[in-house]
From TrEMBL:
Domain RNA polymerase sigma-70 region intervals: 21-90
InterPro entries documented for this protein: RNA_pol_sigma-70_dom, RNA_pol_sigma70_r2, RNA_pol_sigma_r2
NCBIfam families membership: sigma70-ECF (TIGR02937)
Superkingdom of the organism of origin: Bacteria
Species this protein is from: Chryseolinea soli
Gene Ontology biological process terms from the UniProt entry: DNA-templated transcription initiation
Descriptive protein name: Sigma-70 family RNA polymerase sigma factor
Length: 183
């Protein structure tokens, strides 16, 4: 009779430990699954699978973990969820998220084009044409070189650089800041 008492007591203690593990580890698993777009039911399924794996590993003769049982179960659950998430083909739709975010009309500052145009005109007609073609019309340097009559792409690149330097010098001389170009 006494021989049966020891295994029953051991089983009761293990059941209590298992219940404590359930109570301490499940909230972390539920939070993780929720953050990863899973439902409460998904969290319960994953957690139960993780507990079964933990129980099977715990029953092995040479079972040794380097962390707490809660952390071990949470790690198993995370691995299971990520595996299920990947194989189920689920994904988070950024289009739906993007549509739900409304950007106000005044979010982007409006540029005072007259001030900018005055700066560019001070550099000369040729520079205005080069910078306008390259930056506003998005014309490739090859096409720009042909359109404006440069001998090579390198010549167009050098001239564009010189024009930018003229604009930079003009901005420095006038002590103009970024805010001066905004309306």
């Amino acid at each position: 009779m006494e021989a049966l008492a020891i295994p029953v007591a051991t089983l009761c203690r293990e059941a209590m430990d298992f219940e404590a593990l359930y109570e301490s580890a499940f909230p972390g698993v539920a939070r993780f699954v929720s953050k990863m777009n899973g439902s409460f039911e998904d969290a319960k399924d994953i957690f139960h699978d993780a507990l079964v794996i933990f129980h099977e590993k715990h029953a092995e003769e040479h079972f040794n973990i380097q962390s707490s049982p809660e952390a071990y179960v949470l790690g198993i659950a995370k691995h299971l969820w990520l595996k299920r998430f990947k194989t189920s083909g689920r994904h988070i739709s950024l289009d739906a998220m993007e549509a739900s975010i409304a950007i106000p009309e005044d979010y982007y500052p409006t540029v005072d084009t007259s001030t900018l145009l005055q700066m560019l005109e001070r550099t000369g007609k040729k520079c205005l044409d080069i910078l306008q073609a390259f930056y506003y019309e998005k014309m490739p340097l090859q096409a720009l070189a042909q359109k404006l009559g440069f001998g090579s792409v390198h010549s167009a690149t050098v001239q564009k650089y010189k024009c930018l330097e003229k604009v930079r010098d003009e901005v420095k001389n006038k002590s103009i800041s970024y805010e001066d170009f905004l309306e």
